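Morning!

This is the sequence you dropped in the shared folder:
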Amino acid sequence: MVIYLLCRLLLAAVTLLVGSFLSFLFVASAGNPLAEARLRPGVTEAQIRALETDFGLDKPVLQRYWSWLTGFVHGDWGRSLALGSARADVRTAVLDAVSITARLVTAAVVLAVVLGVLVGVLSALAQYSIVDYAATGLAYVLISIPVFCVAVIIKACGIQLNDLLETLGLSRWLVTAGPPGYTDGLLDLLYRHSGTLVLPTLSLMVISFAGYSRFQRASMLEVLDSDYVRTAKAKGISQARVVIRHALRNALIPVVTAFSMDFGGILGGALVVETVFGWPGMSHLLVSSVRQYDPHMLMGWLVVASTMTVLFNLATDLIYSVLDPRIRAR
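The structure's back. Tokens below.
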């Protein structure tokens, strides 16, 4: 198991290094961050050259990459090159955006996986029943709706619910714009800020839930029809033990695969949901960095997003080794 983990960590490190180099080349060749400054009246060529020297743009791209990489490893992610941004610290800006997005993605992913697996198992056990048909129909409807449409519909429903609460003499609970603030404790989080999480989390959760439920149903049906499950039933083992101990564990492997492949889609969906609900998370940071062509901020965003993806896949590999001990022996 230790050798397996070390090999995966080494592969993850190499992947991140190659990915950061290619990303730096693409970002560096995308344009000139001083192009806007050149168009400003009264800006001399000497001032442009001074800015190039200050930003390190006068150096070869490989040297710039090495300077950026060594600084990044030591915690210096550089400063924003966007004009008028007061050269904001990239590390602070990116980590603040990640903390906002993480609050949305974590809750949505946990709910989507738990509910998807539960509904998929129940649907498989009650194949061709009303429960199965209802779960299948709901999943197909949710899968066919784009995430931005789901977010807009849920936001509209949240506004209507707030209006209903007001007519009943209650305060508006659901927040339709803005992220949750920092809280002093768990009770404060549940009472004052739960309304800010409900709508965006639900918007991101429903799409992923539909896919996981379908994967879990198909995988569970295949496992329930296998020889070792029929043998376990023939030995007189209870239905609950057969499902939980023998069938569910193997049926989770394809779902874990779909979960790892869906991380990019979850992150992309989070960007859309953040835009709809006005969360200043990673989506806002990415759009502003692209519009202003801020290379350091873009690189910080890309490396953090890539690291999250690689770590996510690494965790998936570890889950594989727990569900299927044969993987650890390879």
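Headline: DSSP finds 14 helices and no strands in the chain.

More detail when I'm at my desk.
O.
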